[in-house]
Amino acid sequence: MPTPARDELLVEVLACGVCRTDLHVSEGDLPVHREHVVPGHEVVGRVVAHGEDATTFRVGERVGAAWLRHTCGECAFCRRGDENLCPRSRYTGWDADGGYAQYTTVPAAYAYRLPTEIDSVALAPLLCAGIIGYRALRRASLPEGGRLGLYGFGGSAHLCAQVALAQGARVHVLTRGEAAQRLALQLGATSAREAYDTPPELLDSAILFAPVGDLVPVALRALDRGGVLAIAGIHLTDIPALNYERELFYEKQLRSVTSNTRQDGQEFLELAARHGVRATTHAYPLGAAQQALQDLKAGRFDGAAVLVNEDAAPGPGATGA
Ligand SMILES: [Zn+2]
Ligand SMILES: [Zn+2]
């Protein structure tokens, strides 16, 4: 049982999503920030206690804990509203123990209030996959009613697609795998083709979710003049040499996406509640975390895996959980 610091909430975990970053943390693809850290940064839980300064949430209230856990608030990036770029930032399930456990802690200033109309399992993947997908959508500067291409269609992309569609975009999905293409069409995409195919029309914006650098020139060539390609992943294989005339001229732009701000998270959760954004989920008991990670690695499911704490007692704040 962890002890919350003065500014932290002690949270009983109800559900915790399984994100690809957890795999990178647990298999050592990312440098170790804390020995034997408990992974998990898509946490839906119930407040059971709080430190003396963490009074913004009540005991019993349902809260979300996500990847971004701390920023300095003083550097140039924090002061201009880009806290996702803070060099002193810290992360849940990497710098501090996360949600693959019965109990965890979260600084109250970084905890999210959650929409009551979505149940805990469906909510969990929204807290990283959803928020990052939304940040990527913003970075892609999609114009009103614009044409959006999504390269790769896993946990993050299928949530991002729902937001874009709700805002009136026409969405083209480019991904391998018939199941993912079928899910894309079910959600309302105009077309779904193989990753290296050409979409049926030029794109105003594209987002690369697949961690495949070879797709960067492919996606840039699919853009119309002035189009923007945003790369959503924390990892990407090497990008091959670009041809200036075919892939960048006419003011095409190539952008990366780094983490998110708390404002991104709040905006996305409001949009998700308003537009009924839902994750396609596969539930595992908490004790099967290792299996869930291995299934993610092997691509054995579409959508997102979620660990469920079956020992969590129903109680106040468990609305819909
Ligand atoms: Zn800072
Ligand atoms: Zn994540």
UniProtKB/TrEMBL annotation:
Entry-linked InterPro entries: ADH-like_N, ADH_Zn_CS, ADH_Zn_typ-2, GroES-like_sf, NAD(P)-bd_dom_sf
Protein known as: Probable alcohol dehydrogenase AdhA
Top EC class for this record: oxidoreductase
Lineage: Bacteria, Bacillati, Actinomycetota, Actinomycetes, Pseudonocardiales
CDD domains assigned to the protein according to its UniProt record, in alphabetical order: CAD2
EC number(s) on file: 1.1.1.1
Catalytic activity reported: a primary alcohol + NAD(+) = an aldehyde + NADH + H(+); a secondary alcohol + NAD(+) = a ketone + NADH + H(+)
A molecular-function term among this protein's GO annotations: alcohol dehydrogenase (NAD+) activity
Organism of this sequence: Saccharopolyspora thermophila
